[in-house]
Design brief:
The chain folds into three domains: 2-165, Jelly Rolls, CATH 2.60.120; 179-439, Glycosyltransferase (Alpha/alpha barrel); 454-708, Distorted Sandwich (Beta-galactosidase, Chain A, domain 5). The protein is built from 16 helices and 34 strands. The strands form eight sheets. Strands 22-23-24-25-34-29-28-27 form an eight-stranded antiparallel sheet, with no helix packed on it. Strands 1, 3, 4, 6, 9 and 11 form a six-stranded antiparallel sheet that branches. It has a five-stranded antiparallel sheet with strand order 2-5-10-7-8, with no helix packed on it. Strand 23 (577-584) and strand 24 form a beta hairpin. The protein starts with a helix and ends with a strand. GO terms for molecular function: lyase activity.
Length: 709
């Protein structure tokens, strides 16, 4: 019982009723059980309450009623286990009061292991899920409801402990000052500064002091009115709404104001934090979608820790305690399984990492067994996340969410987790080291990378560095990459084949696509990222098939679900000669194959494309040229088409040799994805590019060559 009780922040005196009643040593046990399933062997035994469910319905429940002598129970804690479910849409835990079912929903329920849930009627998790909170709660029963499909042999729900609770008396909202908390705040500060390293902090602080403007993103400021509930409208840009509700602006302003010793600014920042809490936590939020977005809530906890730490000397007792209590309430929200990756279609997602890291930080702020529970949960969940979302492939570790930008970002998260953890820190550090190795292998000779997946592209003037030639080949069959770095007459080149198919998150329609860098220029580009407004025309194009250097089938559906798509990547290298091959089944009923042969001592590639299946036409080879790349065409005596590529920043060029066809290209934004050629840069920035479209008969292989000139 002690572990479940501590996880809820309660002491024995806080218990109103319990099952098994022996936990209390007195007769305060349950008196009636009810289930829509059948009572399993051992139902209402001394060790567990168990129910079995068969197919035929997708709604199943178990309810436990208690004899409660005093109407003071406002919360509950439960230890349970579910098993044998083919699919669980959600698992709900709560209590029935009058005709209302007050509950939390767990959308990513874990099977075959013991789980716990604990919440009170006033907790943020109910507010975050949009559930009405009873004005006079009375918890005298516990109902577990499962919407899901049992496997053929049936499914089970087992409950091993239940506590009905009056209050939380263990964890004080007083922040514990310690060197470990100081280190955690420093980690949070360095993390937010590193993510926004292009920002102009001094200018942002000056604009805040002189014009009361809030910096929502680097270079994006909006006016703030003291009476405002938010600096932006709820119909504004999703990225700006996310930034505001994560309180990134307040954390960044607090860091700069503290560095400048601006006491007045620090006091104002504290007042705005209090206002956010009053508007969104103590009342119904004007923007609940982003106030209670899983990633944003985690970032907000870190921001509040920074603000509280830096404004402590300039904040009154009421404001200090209100912010400290908000941090405590956020930690209880983040530890809840009902809020874990709550806005994602899967439990395994980088947003969950932010939740666990914020929880680790919060565990250093409070001196209680409950805070120790947060720490244990965060470390266990992080280990589980890393196991599921990081692919170990030879000496490399690769983040499976199909984006080098996210790979680089979460590598920092793994290192942050290592710095915050005592146990497992060396394991986390080793993972980060292997992720760094992949980042280095994936980088071009100037230090930049392809803007793969949802990755912002850096402007060339910002990212171009020393161009270092290297001769190395890497094939990663599990994670789906093949990389060759070589040189041609001492000018370095890199070709990267991307065929990742382990995860649908941040995935573009880019299987078997390539990116090519040579002599200071990205000649074949990956289209980058524009914004998370995926349904808008530019983001939709950048994520689609017509933006990538790959084979395109115009009419066939494209599937990015790894459960339905088979991606295979192979390769070999022998004395500088490398051979890569990739295949995928993302197009319905079709297998697309690509092979590449080249040498590390010169840039001279032989490439073959093949499409097999009943629906192979029309097929196109799409070549998406990098920003600034131009071309001229000519023909060989037998009618083959030569494309000569040039760029104003390079003395070198490329020649592409294709079989006979009618040359076709597109430039800039058109009326459809097929008629468009764009790349993204920073947030909502894009540039016109040129794409070459080479039609071919999908029933036959198309062979083409590429060489440096």
């Amino acid at each position: 019982m002690s572990e479940l009780l501590e996880s809820a922040g309660c002491a024995v005196d806080d218990i109103v009723a319990a099952w098994p009643s022996e936990l209390l040593g007195v007769n305060k046990g349950a008196h009636r059980f009810r289930t829509s399933g059948t009572s399993a062997e051992g139902m209402n035994s001394e060790s567990k309450i168990a129910a079995e469910f068969k197919r035929g319905s997708d709604v199943h429940d178990l309810q436990v009623h208690f004899n409660v002598e005093r109407a003071t129970s406002h919360g509950l804690a439960i230890e349970y286990r579910v098993s044998g479910w083919e699919k669980i849409h959600y698992l709900a835990i709560g209590w029935q009061q009058d005709s209302q079912y007050h509950h939390i929903k767990i959308r990513h329920a874990r099977q075959e292991q013991t789980n716990t849930a604990q919440f009170f009627s006033h907790d943020l998790v109910l507010q975050a899920q949009g559930a009405p909170r009873p004005s006079s709660p009375l918890v005298d029963n516990v109902r577990v409801f499962i919407k899901g499909t049992p496997k053929t042999n049936g499914a089970a729900l087992e409950v091993t402990q239940i506590l009905l609770l009056e209050k939380r008396s263990v964890t004080s909202p007083e922040i514990r000052q310690s060197t470990r908390l100081r280190a955690a705040v420093d980690v949070a500060a360095s993390s937010i500064l590193r993510r926004d390293k292009s920002a102009t902090y001094k200018d942002d602080l000056r604009a805040f002091i002189e014009s009361t403007q809030i910096p929502l993103l680097p270079g994006v400021r909006v006016d703030w009115e003291p009476s405002a509930r938010s600096p932006i409208g709820t119909d504004g840009n999703p990225t700006l709404r996310f930034s505001w509700n994560a309180l990134h602006p307040l954390a960044l302003l607090a860091l700069e104001a503290n560095a400048s010793s601006d006491q007045k600014a620090l006091q104002s920042i504290s007042e705005i934090a209090v206002q956010w809490i009053s508007v969104n936590m103590l009342a119904e939020s004007p923007d609940p979608k982003y106030a209670w977005y899983d990633h944003g809530a985690a970032e907000r906890l870190s921001s509040l820790l920074i603000v509280l730490d830096l404004t402590r000397a300039h904040t009154g007792h009421f404001a200090h305690r209100l912010i400290a209590d908000a941090i405590l309430q956020h930690a209880r929200l983040l530890v809840s399984e009902a809020f874990y990756a709550a806005n994602q279609v899967t439990r395994y997602h980088n947003h969950a990492w932010f939740q666990d890291i914020a929880l680790l930080m919060a565990s250093e702020a409070f001196d209680s067994r409950e805070a120790q529970h947060w720490r244990r949960v965060a470390l266990e969940r992080l280990s589980d996340q890393f196991e599921k979302l990081i692919c170990t492939d030879g000496k490399f570790s690769v983040f499976t969410e199909n984006s080098i930008g996210y790979h680089l970002g979460v590598t920092s998260l793994v290192r942050i987790a290592a710095s915050l953890a005592n146990v497992g820190s060396s394991e986390f550090s080793n993972i980060a080291d292997r992720m760094d190795l992949f980042s280095q292998a994936f980088a071009y000779p100037d230090g930049s990378t392809p803007a793969q997946g949802d990755t912002y592209r850096g402007h060339p003037s910002r990212v171009r560095g020393h161009q270092k030639a290297r001769s190395e080949v890497h094939v990663l069959p599990k994670s789906g990459y093949a990389i060759a770095h070589g040189s041609d007459s001492e000018d370095p080149y890199s070709i990267i084949l991307m065929n990742s198919g382990l995860n649908s998150t941040h995935k573009h329609e880019d299987n078997a696509s390539i990116a090519l860098w040579f002599a200071g220029v990205e000649w074949f580009t990956d289209p980058s990222f524009y914004s998370h407004a995926y349904r808008e025309s530019i983001p939709a194009y950048l994520r689609g098939r017509w933006a990538h250097n790959a084979v395109v089938l115009d009419a066939a559906d494209y599937n990015i679900d790894p459960a339905d798509v088979n991606c295979t990547t192979k390769g070999s290298v022998d004395d500088g000669l490398y051979r890569f091959s990739a295949s995928h089944t993302a197009y319905a009923g079709v297998t697309v194959r690509r092979s590449i042969e080249g040498r590390t001592d010169r840039l001279d590639l032989a490439i073959a494309e093949r499409v097999s299946g009943p629906k192979t036409e029309p097929a196109y080879l799409l070549v998406h040229l990098g920003p600034g790349v131009t071309f001229q065409t000519s023909r060989t005596p037998n009618g083959d088409v030569l494309y000569q590529l040039r760029h104003p920043h390079s003395m070198r060029g490329l020649e592409l040799h294709f079989p006979k066809h009618a040359p076709a290209s597109v430039f800039g934004e058109g009326d459809s994805p097929k008629e468009t050629s764009l790349v993204g840069f920073g947030f909502q920035e894009c540039a016109d590019t040129t794409s070459i479209q080479v039609p071919f008969d999908g029933r036959d292989s198309m062979r083409w060559q590429l060489r440096a000139i």
